[in-house]
Known about the structure:
By secondary structure, this protein is an alpha+beta fold. The protein has helices at residues 31-48, 65-68, 95-101; strands at residues 20-26, 52-58, 76-81, 86-89.
Amino acid sequence: MYEKKEPSKEKQDINDSEYFELRLYVAGQTSNSVKAFSNLQKICDEYLKGKYKIEVIDLLKTPQLAAGDQILAIPTLVRKLPEPIKKIIGDLSNTERVLVGLDIRSKNDT
Length: 110
């Protein structure tokens, strides 16, 4: 059900030098995990327009990967690039919170 999403060739709204490398940590196909992936995909398609890569890590299959990013709750989104690393916990249903958390939109823009 999950797949890695590679950048598309659509028009880009963000700075050309900004490329987002995102990791979504989930635990199987729970409703929150599926919802988080779906919400993230929609946000990336709308706001990052081809300037991102999503890697989904299922901690039921590879639990040792949780230690590297210090994952304490799931689902958790980790922005690896651009630095600094940022984390957002939850199903990512609050689009404004996700945009601010990823530094795509500032708090003052909301």
